[in-house]
UniProtKB/TrEMBL annotation, chain A:
Residues 325-335 have a biased composition (Basic and acidic residues). Its main location: nucleus. Residues 38-53, 423-440 have a biased composition (Low complexity). Regulatory subunit of the SLX1-SLX4 structure-specific endonuclease that resolves DNA secondary structures generated during DNA repair and recombination. Has endonuclease activity towards branched DNA substrates, introducing single-strand cuts in duplex DNA close to junctions with ss-DNA. The gene is SLX4. It comes from Karstenula rhodostoma CBS 690.94. HAMAP family: Endonuc_su_Slx4. Residues 136-148, 186-195, 454-464 have a biased composition (Basic residues). This is Structure-specific endonuclease subunit SLX4. GO terms for cellular component: Slx1-Slx4 complex. Phosphorylated in response to DNA damage. Keywords: DNA damage, DNA recombination, DNA repair, Nucleus, Phosphoprotein. InterPro entries: Slx4_ascomycetes, Structure-sp_endonuc_su_Slx4. It comes from the Eukaryota.
TrEMBL record, chain B:
Forms a heterodimer with SLX4. One of its GO terms (molecular function) is 5'-flap endonuclease activity. Residues 325-356 have a biased composition (Acidic residues). This is GIY-YIG domain-containing protein. Belongs to the SLX1 family. Its cofactor is a divalent metal cation. It holds the Pfam family GIY-YIG. Keywords: DNA damage, DNA recombination, DNA repair, Endonuclease, Hydrolase, Nuclease, Nucleus. SUPFAM superfamilies: GIY-YIG endonuclease. Residues 9-90 form the GIY-YIG domain. The keyword DNA-binding does not apply. It is found in: Nucleus. It comes from Karstenula rhodostoma CBS 690.94.
Length: 979, 356
């Protein structure tokens, strides 16, 4: 490459000068050179000269000591070039060698002199000479290349073929030196070399003199030239003229060789090509040992200057050295790309050096270069270096660090496909079995889990084991591959895959899609695959089962198992969702429910005998929907411990004497409450749902009044809503507490059938867990129904009265209201204590108190009193509200309101509903007291207590000059509340 | 919410007046000198509304200081800016005042629209907020005037206003020069203005309560059993919320409850919760409740502030400012954002928008 560039540049710039120069050049070495030196500055293109120098230096060293002068004239003369040229040209091959040697170890007068001279000068001179040489060469090159190539081919078949650049460069160098030597003999190589050696005495002496003088003159000339171009030019011509005389011989020779009209330029050109081959052949033999060392140094310097990339120069040096001596580990360390580039340089260098010296060495070098790559791998030094250089070993390790690498890397080498399918298949098969064995669900589940675990475990092991070996392999490969040459060919081979094979590979690739979190986890890709497969299959199964609606239980079992197993790894959360869009997590809890479902058949089987008509009715009623609800319920099962207990109870009941257990279970939670409040009949039924709804509003002080208001409505309606629940659980409950309940259930049942669709929403509030799924009437299969079973019992009881009052309308309302309810219920779960159950204490208050302004006079003092009565805190970091106020804290209204509502003293009132009044009066009656009645228009009102609201608290704060603030960003931009 | 911060060393609302004396700006800040510099462009962060170069220099005419929290200051600021709309005044009263202040009835009183406010109206609003609004009635506020002409205006217009300021609200005039233009030596232009010495001298850090804090610390460090100076019951300085008389010679300590009740009884305001002032039962020194609370909050929540207060004893003078900076910047940052964001929406007219 460098050679080509040189040629072009030379052509554009300096042809004339060259042409002119060559005539004068060759013979009068000192004068010419001197002259040439000044000429160079005129031409001065330092950058151009730079590269030329390098090549020139190399070439000159190689071939022609004598022709150098010609080159000198032609070449650009910068200080560097001059120095370099002087070194190379003056001395000739031997001189070059000597110079190189002298640098290392000064020898001989010339050397000593030169050595004594600052190396810079030499280098510059050499460069100048190189420039000179390069210029003439460059001009001839375009033309001369062809001949050069021919010559190169002749001389060095391999080298020329292998690298045009190298050949060109080599040819250059060869030519340059060749041109000068040619004049004497037609047989370039030997004679020149010989001449160089032999002539050295003659020419060299002259040259030496010239050189010695030259550097001086050159420096002077350069200065002068820079200062005074005209003088320089004149000097050039003078020198040229002088050179012409001396060069007449050369020219003649050249003319003889070239025979062109433009004697000088053409001749030189022609000469150049001719010469290199011969020269190349000749000189290298003698010089190879010497030039390699010295040349390296010079070239390295030049290269560093000329060639931009410093690291490459280092590589080149290394390579050259390695060529000579394979010792150096540096090339190994370098990356392959760098190696390649380095080789190219090395070749150039080698050629520049060796070819200049001799053609044969260039050939050898070319071969050597190729060989070198391989050799590098083999030799001990290299190995050592590889081992010694941990970097390479590390590098392969580093690659897999990225997520994609990790993922893909795992795939590439290993995957145990059989495992995954097996696992899945086992799952499903077992599920089926489990389904069939409904009664023994838990056992099955366990077994399934075990099996799944077992299956999975091996997979994991495999996966884990595999990646490790992979890494090991990779490492080993990398180490092995560290032999650069070996690694490179492999890479190339891989890249060269035929399109067909590439397609095949593509097809082979298993791309695993997943979230980054999934992929990043340690789990092997196979695991992820399996999981995904399992999910799909399970989903399909689930869909099928849903559609069939008959064999729901098994499907659910499968679901639960799969989910459990995989859910542990939490992959489900990220990727898997139900058909309905619900997260699979719910299903974890689900296991017990299948049992329930299973229980059903058992109940039916066993119970029918005992069970009343009502019971049968329930089943009949339930069955169409029942299967679906069961399934749906199962996935959503409540996670609460209570549910688990229930399930367990159910299981027990199924196995042994389930009914009693169930009843106990049902009764237990309500038991404390029921005993006191609810009549005996209601006790049994009044377990779960109702209380929750009713209780929550009251017990939850925090809830805002709107909620409470809705709450009241709900209470009213609830009775009607409850019946639907009866379908499943109520039956169980009734079975548990046989006769008493029976009486009621029938009523509920009668009401139930129409309500069932409606029931779903009602159930929702009952169990907080189910709330998440808003699905209402669309799919009866929704899980809620199953939950409703428990609750329904109460509903039935309550429904008696309420139903009569409000038959159907409540349904619609409930649906509408249902969403808010769950929230309330969620906050306050099962513990609901309805002492009064539905009975809300009714107060007879003046109507004015219903308004805030009306109650304000009493409310605020109450609040103040409450605050003042707060006991002082013992923890300075947790002051009471009173203390906060005293400390000027900004009070967060919401928090403060919540706190206040935990105290019964602070209440506002809300008009009581008819139902509440009725219930209250009923209760009073039961206690033997008078009913509360209010005559409209007297200003008195029956009211129920209501929680205090935030705005009231805010007003109070303002009244008390307390800085209060609404929690930030409650309503998005509600910041304004601050002010 | 930053409820766990101690009572700020200083927080004030201020009224700026433009160079033309026709524009006004109400803001709040924990550091008036710095804030005034921002408004006048000598440092970054001034409110947009005060960025018009022709209005500069802004003059800080008066400040209302003593807010016990940033939130309190912001609420007061907003109420001052939007006295026609603040929740702290009943609506009918509000509307009546607006009509009165504007002296001309507007056909369509849109609540969103802020009526143009004259200086007189602003001062009256301030007076009303301080004297007639319960929300702020027990806050430990003080008023300082820096512009004599505005102080005279204040006196003239507020003298007859119905609810007088309670006596505990001190109104003070400390004349300050107009922010003098500072000729920039390099550019020669006068785009920056000096901050009056009076404003720069406003104590913005906890310096004034340092001795109090030190005393409380030493008492706590003594670890000897103490009893409440009011109820004579036992008192734990380290765990409970105990108050320490700031007077150096007074060794009395009190339960917060006890002393607050005592103060309230002293004031005769039994219905109130927060006392304003009282006398130390032991040494009979008149005390401000806010003083006690500031020390208490520093003791219980202000470890960082206390450390900052006591750390750099060497360069005391230089430290006072950095000290305040150390504790306030975060607060400042917050407010600036909050106020500018939310308030710009509500305020339509050209009046100043609070930006701290």
């Amino acid at each position: 490459m460098a050679g080509a560039t040189y040629d072009i540049v030379v052509l554009s710039s300096s042809p004339d000068s060259h042409h002119v120069a060559p005539r004068a050049l060759s013979p009068a070495s000192p004068l010419e050179r001197r002259v040439a030196m000044p000429s160079s500055p005129l031409r001065s293109r330092s950058p151009l000269s730079g590269p030329r120098r390098a090549t020139a230096g190399a070439s000159r060293t190689g071939s022609r000591a004598a022709p150098v002068p010609i080159g000198v004239e032609r070449g650009f003369a910068t200080a560097r070039s001059l120095l370099a040229d002087i070194n190379i040209n003056d001395r000739g091959l031997s001189a070059i060698e000597e110079a190189l040697e002298s640098r290392r170890a000064p020898t001989g007068p010339e050397n000593t002199i030169k050595a004594s001279k600052p190396p810079r000068k030499r280098a510059t001179k050499a460069a100048a000479t190189g420039e000179d040489a390069a210029k003439p060469r460059a001009k001839p090159k375009p033309r001369g290349r062809k001949p050069k190539t021919t010559g190169a081919e002749q001389a060095t078949g391999d080298a020329s073929h292998a690298e045009v650049v190298t050949t060109t460069t080599s040819s250059y160098f060869a030519k340059l030196p060749a041109a000068p030597p040619e004049p004497k003999p037609t047989k370039p190589r030997k004679p020149r070399t010989k001449k160089a050696t032999t002539d050295d005495g003659e020419i060299q002496t002259t040259i030496k003199e010239a050189r010695v003088t030259k550097p001086r003159g050159a420096t002077k000339v350069t200065k002068k030239a820079r200062e005074k171009a005209a003088e320089v030019a004149s000097a050039h011509f003078r020198s040229r003229g002088a050179a012409d005389d001396a060069a007449g011989l050369y020219q003649q020779d050249t003319t003889v060789a070239g025979g062109q009209s433009a004697q000088i330029g053409d001749d030189s050109i022609w000469d150049v090509p001719m010469s290199p081959s011969a020269r190349c052949n000749g000189p290298p033999k003698q010089r190879p040992p010497d030039p390699s060392y010295p040349l390296d140094l010079d070239e390295a310097v030049n290269r560093r200057r000329d060639w931009t990339p410093p690291p490459e120069t280092e590589q080149q040096e290394i390579l050259t050295s390695s060529i000579g001596k394979e010792n150096k580990p540096l090339p190994e360390k370098e990356s392959f790309t760098s190696l390649l580039s380095g080789y190219s340089y090395a070749q150039v260098d080698a050629r520049s050096e060796q070819p200049a010296s001799k053609s044969t060495p260039t050939e050898v070098t070319g071969a050597v270069k190729r060989r070198r790559v391989e050799l590098l791998d083999l030799p001990n030094h290299q190995v050592v270096s590889r081992q010694a250089s941990p970097e390479k070993g590390k590098a392969p390790k580093k690659k897999p660090r990225t997520i994609t690498d990790l993922v893909t890397g795992q795939y590439a080498p290993q995957q145990p496909p059989p495992d995954s399918p097996e696992v899945t298949s086992t799952f499903f098969t077992r599920r089926a079995t489990a389904v069939t064995k409904a009664t023994k669900m838990p056992l099955n589940d366990v077994a399934d889990e075990d099996s799944t675990k077992a299956s999975k475990k091996p997979v994991r092991k495999r996966s884990t084991s595999k990646p490790a070996p992979e890494h090991g392999e990779v490492k080993g490969k990398s180490k092995k591959a560290s032999a650069k040459a070996a690694a490179k060919p492999k890479l190339v081979a891989e890249k060269l895959l035929s399109p067909a094979s590439a397609l095949v590979r593509l097809n082979r690739q298993d791309v695993l899609f997943g979230t980054s979190s999934q992929l990043a986890r340690e789990e092997s890709p196979t695991m992820v695959r399996e999981i995904q497969k399992a999910i799909r299959e399970s989903e399909q199964d689930a869909e099928l089962r849903h559609s069939l609606a008959s064999d729901d239980v098994p499907a659910f079992g499968a679901w639960s198992r799969l989910q459990r197993i995989e859910g542990r790894r939490a992959l489900w959360k990220a990727s898997s969702r139900d058909d309905e869009g619900h997260t699979l997590e719910r299903q974890n809890v689900y296991l017990p429910e299948p049992d329930r479902a299973q229980d059903f058949p058992l109940l039916i089987e066993k119970m029918p005998e005992k069970s009343d008509d009502s019971f049968l009715d329930i089943d009949d009623f339930a069955p169409p929907q029942a299967p679906i609800p069961i399934s749906s319920d199962l996935p959503t099962p409540p996670r609460t411990v209570a549910n688990d207990k229930v399930v367990a109870a159910v299981d027990r009941s199924a196995n042994s004497s389930p009914y009693l257990d169930i009843d106990d279970f049902l009764q237990r939670p309500p038991a404390p409450e029921d005993g006191s409040r609810v009549p005996a009949e209601e006790n049994v039924i009044s377990s779960s749902p109702f209380r929750d709804i009713d209780d929550f509003p009251r017990h939850l002080p925090l809830s805002n009044q709107p909620v409470s208001s809705s709450f009241h409505d709900i209470n009213d309606f609830i009775p009607s809503a409850q019946p639907p629940a009866t379908g499943s659980l109520p039956a169980l409950a009734s079975t548990g507490s046989p006769k008493k309940r029976r009486g009621r259930p029938p009523k509920s049942q009668s009401a139930i059938p129409p309500r069932i669709p409606v029931s779903a929403p009602v159930r929702v509030p009952e169990k907080p867990n189910t709330h998440a799924q808003p699905s209402t009437a669309t799919s009866p299969s929704t899980p809620r129904k199953s939950q409703s079973r428990f609750h329904s019992i109460e509903a039935i009881l309550d429904s008696e009265d309420d139903e009569a009052l409000s038959p159907t309308p409540p349904r619609a309302r409930r649906l509408g209201y249902s969403p808010p309810l769950p929230l309330v219920l969620d906050t306050a779960p099962a513990p609901a204590k309805d002492t009064t159950n539905h009975i809300v204490p009714i107060h007879c208050i003046p109507e004015a108190k219903l308004t805030f302004d009306g109650i304000r006079p009493t409310l605020f003092p109450a609040l103040t009193f409450l605050i003042r009565s707060l006991p002082p805190t013992t923890d300075a970091s947790n002051p009471s509200w009173h203390e906060k106020i005293l400390m000027y804290d900004a009070i967060v209204v919401e928090d403060f309101t919540a706190f206040l509502n935990t105290h019964d003293h602070v209440r506002t009132y809300k008009r009581a509903t008819q139902k509440q009044v009725k219930a209250w009066n009923k209760d009073l009656k039961a206690k033997g007291k008078e009913e509360m009645k209010v005559v409209e228009g007297e200003g008195m009102v029956l009211a129920v207590e209501k929680e205090i609201e935030a705005y009231m608290v805010q007003k109070w704060c303002e009244e008390m000059s307390v800085c209060c603030v609404f929690r930030e960003r409650k309503n998005g931009g509600a910041r304004k509340g601050l002010y | 919410m930053a409820m766990e911060k101690p009572i700020p060393a200083f927080y004030c609302c201020y009224l700026l007046r433009s160079k033309s004396r026709k524009s006004f700006y109400i803001g709040s800040t924990p550091n008036p000198a710095r804030r005034l510099g921002q408004h006048n462009g000598s440092s970054k962060g001034g409110a947009k509304r005060t960025s018009l170069q022709t209005n500069r220099p802004w003059e800080m005419t008066c400040i209302v200081a003593g807010f016990p929290s940033k939130y309190a200051a912001l609420q007061f600021e907003w109420a001052w800016q939007n006295t026609h709309a603040t929740r702290h005044i009943d609506r009918d009263v509000r509307d009546a005042r607006v009509d009165e202040l504007q002296k001309k009835t507007k056909a369509a009183p849109s609540r969103r629209r802020r009526p143009p406010m004259s200086l007189e109206a602003r001062l009256k609003n301030l007076h009303y907020l301080l004297g007639g609004v319960r929300s702020f009635s027990r806050w430990p506020l003080h008023v300082r005037f820096f512009a004599p002409d505005i102080f005279t205006t204040w006196e003239r217009h507020t003298a007859k206003m119905a609810p007088k300021l309670r006596t505990s609200i001190t109104v003070q005039l400390t004349p300050a020069d107009l922010p003098a233009p500072v000729a920039n030596p390099s550019t020669g232009d006068t785009t920056t203005f000096e901050i009056p010495d009076v404003i720069q001298a406003i104590p913005v850090a906890y310096e004034d309560c340092k001795s109090h804090v030190e005393k409380a610390r030493s008492l706590v460090g003594e670890q000897r059993p103490r009893c409440c100076g009011v109820c004579s019951a036992r008192l734990n300085l380290s765990t409970g919320l105990a108050l320490v008389c700031p007077v150096a010679t007074c060794q009395s300590t009190y339960h917060m409850h006890c002393l607050s009740n005592r103060f309230l009884a002293e004031e005769g305001s039994q219905d109130a919760l927060i006392p304003i002032e009282g006398t130390c039962p032991s040494c009979h020194t008149p005390l401000k409740w806010s003083t006690l609370m500031k020390e208490l909050s520093l003791r219980t929540r202000g470890q960082k502030e206390i450390e900052a207060m006591f750390k750099p004893k060497r360069r005391r003078k230089a430290d006072t400012i950095p000290e305040s900076d150390a504790t306030e910047p975060q607060e400042l940052g917050e407010e600036d954002e909050d106020l500018d964001e939310t308030w710009m929406e509500d305020v339509d007219d050209g009046e100043a928008v609070a930006a701290t």
